[in-house]
Amino acid sequence: MTQRETPMKRGYIQVYTGDGKGKTTAAIGLAARALGAGLSVCFVQFIKGSEYSEIRTLKKLGVPIHQFGRGRFIMGKPSDQDKELAVQGLAEVRDLVTGGGFDLIVLDEVNVALDLGVLEVADVLDILRAKPDGLEIVCTGRNAPKELMEAADLVTEMREVKHYYNAGVPGRKGIES
Questions:
Q1: 13-157: which CATH topology?
Q2: Domain residue spans of the chain
Q3: Edge-to-edge order in the sheet of strand 154-157
Q4: Which of 85, 146, 150, 169 could lock 164 by a disulfide, CB 3.0 to 4.6 Å apart?
Q5: 49-58: per-residue pLDDT in tens?
């Protein structure tokens, strides 16, 4: 990737966290808005590795997708392979961030990767500090660590008030997956 001039003078770090639904969806909405404004977007997904509906849509829009997961969400203790994939992903993120090729990079579920211990907070913060001025970075996922929220310029917490999942409704294609 070559350095290029970005249309944004200043990019910020955003964190979408909390136990409520909509963190990834909000990040994808921001990505759609950025694309509509002519900005370049990259979507990096930790933990997840399957082609969810949102991934198919982003691909149709020409957004580069990088996934670093085994095709299923981690339940319980992460495996060595989960950690290897996350660390490999973070190395790639460093190149994406410092390469200057994007205006917006979404790090989907990076907060969960940090919470599960497959990534180190210090390593993610190091990459965020290295971002060029014109790059916006969005970090999504439950349980964002305090240090990440303190480093961010914007933190939004999605709070579950009521969810039909708790009444036994499984995830529905096109709505939750």
A1: Rossmann fold (3.40.50)
A2: 13-157
A3: 65-69, 41-47, 104-108, 136-140, 13-17, 154-157
A4: 169
A5: 777 888 899 9
